[in-house]
Design brief:
3-stranded antiparallel sheet, alpha+beta, BirA Bifunctional Protein, domain 2, elongated, 2 domains
């Protein structure tokens, strides 16, 4: 009831006795020490007499972590507290205990929202554009990835123009283009996306080396067949 967030619940319990007003002397002394320790370490906190946990084995202090970078209704990251009597309740000797649980997804969302781990976006080495059925795109993408290169492709049979737009948005260094003519001749087209230059047509077996060279800043490989302006 104390943890209910509905306005009607809040109104009904506004004048309910607060737990903090009815602590025994040892509990009050313990809580005073907890607050003093947080103050000494410069850890900001807010006291909430409505804070409860979902299990009844907690004793004394309970706590929750929240992030102001998330929406108020979903800003709880994790929480826990002391359970000094839990081990004894389970048949063991009296043992002090404290623990907490964290929502990993919420924690990662909060880290992203607060810029805790800024990461520079990593572009692709190649984006495979295939208007010849998809089998070549499948095999070339797999070969590039096996070679340790970052590669992606379109999967929904879109037009070449649409796929090239996706290739440009992906940040890829080059586009590897396969059409019916390339399939028939065992070749692919390498089109630069991050520098000015002409696209070239190369043999299928040279794709991995060509993309790797482009990723090293060596530009497009010399054409082994023909150069297309």
């Amino acid at each position: 009831m104390l943890d209910c967030k509905r306005p009607a619940c809040r109104q009904a319990t506004d004048k309910a006795p607060a737990i903090s007003d009815h602590l025994c002397d040892p509990c009050r002394e313990h809580f005073t020490r907890v607050c003093a320790g947080l103050d000494a370490l410069g850890v900001p906190y807010e006291f909430d007499h409505r804070l409860v946990r979902g299990f009844d084995y907690y004793t004394r202090t309970t706590f929750e972590f929240s992030s102001q970078a998330l929406e108020a209704a979903q800003n709880g990251i994790g929480g826990g507290g002391r359970y000094d009597g839990l081990v004894e309740m389970l048949g063991g000797p009296p043992t002090p205990g404290i623990g907490f649980g964290i929502g990993i997804e919420r924690l990662l969302l909060a880290c992203d929202a607060e810029g805790v781990y800024p990461v520079d976006p990593v572009g692709l080495d190649a984006f495979v554009v295939d208007v010849a059925g998809g089998e070549w795109a499948r095999d070339i993408t797999a070969a590039l990835r096996r070679a340790g290169l970052r590669a992606d492709r379109a999967f929904d049979g879109r037009s070449m123009k649409s796929q090239l737009k996706s290739a440009d948005r992906s940040g890829a260094t080059v586009a590897v283009i396969i059409g019916p003519d390339e399939v028939a001749s065992g070749q692919v087209i390498i089109r630069p996306l991050r520098w000015s230059g002409s696209q070239v047509t190369i043999a299928l077996g040279e794709v991995v080396d060509a993309v790797a060279a482009a990723g090293r800043g060596e530009g497009a490989p010399p054409s082994t067949v023909s150069e297309v302006p």
